[in-house]
Protein 1
Amino acid sequence: MPDQPVARAEYVREQVKEQNFGVVRKPLTVGERIWGQSAVRKAVILIVLAGLWQAYATYLNNTLLVPTFLSTVQSFIGHTLTGELPGKAWVSIKVLLQGYAIGLALALAIAVLAVTSQIGNDLLEALTAMFNPLPAIALLPIALIWFGLGNPSLVFVLVHAVLWPVALNTHSGFLAVSNTMRMVGRNYGLTGVGYVCRILVPAAFPSIVTGLKIGWAFAWRTLIAAELVFGTSSGSGGLGWFIYENKNTLDIPSVFAGLFSVIIIGLLVESLIFRVLEERTIRKWGMHLQ
Amino acid sequence: MSTAGAAAPLLCVKGVTLQYKTREHLVTATYRVSFDVHPGDRFVLLGPSGCGKSTLLKAVGGYLNPVEGEIVLKGKAISKPGPDRVMVFQEFDQLLPWKTVKQNVVFALEASGRLRGKEAEDRAMAYIEKVNLTRFAESFPHTLSGGMKQRVAIARGMAMEPDILLMDEPFAALDALTRRKMQDELLQLWEDTRFTVLFVTHSIPEAVRIGNRILLLSPHPGQVKAELNSDGDDSVDPALGSTLSERIHKMLFSDAVEAEEVHPDA
C-alpha cells in the first residue's frame, strides 16, 4: 500500500470550437412537438371517452337510460340551430356573471380588510368558518322569501357560493406574500390602496387565480342546481330549466344535450379565459411553481 | 481619507438601542450604538451573526423604531420607511416578478412619485446601462441569474438617487466568483457616481474591500467595538506590522476566547 497517492502529470486541453460540434441543440420531431401540446393530449382523452360512451350506449341499446354519443350530439346540434340552447345558455350565463362579479368584489373587499387589520382577519375567519360549509342551494328557499321569484334570489345564492372560497384563497395568498416584497413596497412609499393594488394583489395572483377558478365552478354548479329545483321561477329559464323540461317529456337525448352544453361551457371558460389569463400573468412572470 | 473633513455628517446614529419581540422573549439587538456616516462614505457594518447589524440597517430604513436614542438623516429624525433611503436586500425576491427589469426600476421611480412617464424610463435605462443589463431590460426576473437580479436591485436603488443606499448583505447568496465580480462592479459604480452607502456584511474580506470606514460590532447585544479606516487593498500596516483583516480578525477572535473562558464559571 503506497502512503502517497499516485503522482500524475498536470494537463491543459484546447477547447473544441462551438461551430465544430455536430449538434448542440437538436429540434424535436413533428410528432414529439404535436404530442407536447397539452391541448392535443386532452383532445385525445376526450375522443377516447366519447368512443367508450358510444360503444357502451350502442351495446346497451336503451335510449331512455343512456342515449348514444352521436344521438346526443345530434340533439345538441338540433337545439343549437333552432337557437333554443344558446338562448337558454345565455340566460344562465347572464345571471351567473352578475353573481360572480358581485361575489368577487365582496371577496376582495373582505380579504383586503382582513389583511390590513386584526379585527378584519378575525371577521373573515369567523364568517368563512360559518358560511363556507353551508351549501348555497340551501339558502334558496330563504332567498325566495326575501327577494321573491326571479333573478335577485339566484344572484343572492350565487354571491354566497362565490364569496367565501374566493375570499379564503385571496386572503391566504395575501398572507403568503414574502416580507421582502412588502418591505420593497413600503420603501418606495406605497401605502393603503396603492400598496394593495401594486404589491399585494399581483404578488398573491397565483392564489387569486385559483380562487377565481374555484369560485367559477361553485357558481356554475349552484346555478344549474338552483334552476333545476326552482327553474320556473327565473322567468324565461336557463340551462337547468331546459334539462328539467326535457326530462319531464322523456326526451333523454336532449337532457344529455343540456348536460353536454354545461360541460362545453365549462371547458371553454377553462381553456379560453383562465388559461389565457394564466399565460399572460403568472406563467409569464415565472410564479406558477409556487 | 479626508473626504468630508469638518462637514456635517449625513446620517447620525445616536445611542440607539433596538429591541424586538419573538414568541417568548424580548431581544435586545443593539445597545447604545452611535456612529456618523458622511457624504460619499462606503460605511460598512461588520460583525458576527447576532450583533444586530441587519436590525440596525432596518432601523435606518425606518422599518423599526429605536427604544432609546435616535437616527437622524440630514437633520431629520427617521420614523418610517421612505424613498430617501433605498434598501437593497439579500433575497432575490426583492424584484417584483410581474414586472420586467425596466418596469421594476420605473416602478420604484413612479411609486415614490419621483418621476413619471418618459423621464422615469430614461433614468431607468441609464442606470440599467450602468450595471450592464441593457440587453435584458425587457426580461422578466425569473429568467435572470442571481447576480443579474442583484444588479437590477442595485440599479433600482441607485436610480432613485437616494440620500443613502442601504445594502443588507446583498452578495451573500451569490457564489464566490460572482460575488467577487459584484464587489468590483460596486466599487466601479461608486467611482462613477460617488453615492453614499451603508453596507452590512459578516465577511471580513468583503468589508475590507468594499468599505472606506468599517464599524465593528460585538454580539449579544450589538455594541460598537471599533471604527476603522480601510484603503481597500489590505496591505501590511508598517506601524502595526499586520494587515487590516488580521487586526479585525484578532478583535473578533478575542471575544470568542473570552466567552469560552467565562462560560465554565457561569
Note: The radius of gyration of chain A is 27 Å.
Protein 2
Amino acid sequence: MNKLKARVILSMIIVPLGLIIAAIPENKTKQYKLDSQQMLNEMVEGNQFIVPDEVAHMLVQKDPSLQLIDVRSADEFDKFHLPGAINIPLNSILAEEWEDYVNQDVKMNVFYSNGVTKGNEAWMLTRKLGYENNYVLQGGLNYWAETIMNPEAPKNTVADDELAKYNFRMAAGNALGGGKLQASNTSTNTKKKKPIIKKRPKKKRAAGGC
Amino acid sequence: MGPFVITEIISENTNFLLAFVIGIGFGFVLESSGFSSSRKLAGMFYGYDTTVLKVFFTAAITAMLGLLFFSLFGWIDLSLIYINPTFLWSTIIGGVIMGAGFIIGGFCPGTAFCALSIGKIDALAFVGGLFIGIFAFTEGYPLIEELYKAEYLGIPTINESLGLSRGVFALILIVVAVAMFWIGEWAEKKFPREEY
C-alpha cells in the first residue's frame, strides 16, 4: 500500500513538471558568456596580442596549429593576405558557418586586419561568447609590413639580440614573400580549399552507467 | 553558470573530489535499495521485482527534469554537456553483452562493487570476470578496432531525430515512465515469488 502511494505521489510531481517543460520554449541562449568586468580585465591584460615575430616564426616553421583569420573584406583579402589565412569578414564573424572555426580548441586563431581595430573587435566579440584560442596580430598588417616585410636595420650600437631579431625578420620576410606587400603569388592561395576543422569535441566526462 | 568544470568555476581536481563524494552517495543508495542482491536485480527480468526499473527510471527522469529546468533558469548551458557519441555496432554489441552479463551474473558493474563491499562471494567472481573482460578488450583492441569504430553517427539525440523539442520529448518520457511504474507493479503481482 505504501509503495502504491509513493508511485502516485511521484507521478503527481513529475507529470505536471513534464507538462510545464513541454509547454515552455527551450532556453537556447548560451549562458556561458564573459561579463563586462571580466572582459575589461582581459582587455587591460592584453594577452590576446601576438607579436608579428611569433606569427612569422610559426609561419616559417609551418606550424599546423596556427590559423590566420583575415577579418577584412573579401576584396582586400583577394589583393593580399598572409599565407594560409582564411577570410572571415568582420560582419560575418558571428555567422553560423564560421562558428566551427572561431569556437574550437584545436588551433590557435590569429585575427588580423590592416590596423589592430577590426582584429581586436573580432577577438572581443568571440571572447565575450566565451570562445578560446583566439588572438590578435599586434599592430595588424601595417605593423607586419613594417617589421617583417621591410625591417628597419638597427644601428650598429644596439645589443646583439636586437640584431638577431633583425636577421630573423629579414630571413622570415624573404621566406614569406618579403619586400613587396602586393605579392602576386598569393592568388593561388585564395582558391585553396578551406581547411577542415572538426567540430569541437565536447570535453570528455567519465561516461555514466550503473 | 554551469557546467562548473568547463566554465572553470571549479578546478578539475575539485571536480574529482565532488565525484568522489557523489560516488559514495551513489553506492550508499544502491546498497540501501537492495541492489547488492543479485536476486533482486535478476527479478527485473522475471518480473517478480521491478525495483531496478523503477529506481533507474526515477533517476533518469529526475536528472532530465533537473537539467531542463536548470537550463530554463539559465543555470546551465546544455550545449556544453558531454553526450556520449554513437558508434552503432559498438552500441548494439555492447548492449547485448551487457544484458547477457547482467542476467547471467546477476549484477551490473556498479552493483557488483556494491555487493563486493558487503562481502558477497558471487560479486567477487563477477568483478574478477569484469577485469578479465577489460584485459581481453584492451589486449584484443587492434583486432576489433574497425568494428568498434564502425557506423559513427555523431551525437544524435532521439528528440532531434524525431523533430521534437526537448520539453515535449521529456513529457513523453515521463508518461512512458509512469506507465512503466504501473506495469512494474502489475508484473510484481502477476509473477510473485515468496522469498528471495
Note: Residues 23 and 94 of chain B are 24 Å apart (CA to CA).
